[in-house]
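Design review, sub-item: ligand-bound model
Attendees: FS, YL, KQ
YL presented the inputs for the zinc ion complex:
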Amino acid sequence: MSDLRDLYQEVILDHGKNPRNFRKLEDADHQAEGNNPLCGDRINLYLKMDGEVIADIGFQGRGCAISTASASMMTESVKGKTRAEAEALFQRFHELVTGEAEASPGAPELGKLAVFAGVRDYPIRVKCATLPWHTLRAALEEKQETVSTE
Ligand code: ZN
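KQ shared the predicted structure:
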């Protein structure tokens, strides 16, 4: 497991152990459930929208450090953003973790989400890192079925 050590940078460990916004929103008006059977990660995501803006967001679930940290940092990153801004951030994040492309002009800044660049060398971990984002998209689109990375 030593080659995984590079993944567990301090910030990921911190968010994995002490996830932010780890709570159910009792007044959520959007929610979705995500499942990554390959790793066993499960997430329930709750949103409270104010028009197009994500006014509040919380999640619960069980997962590995990567998925928990990704969910935690995602909630911090998209809170207060519009639906379109959150979607743009997801696209940029997806490019980062899959190593598909350099940032296109006008792409949003990832900020500390950039620590997840390390997962691109571990395809299984890419699913852990993107699960919360796929679940966010489903919640925004009001999809009823559970999101699965498989
Ligand atoms: Zn995982």
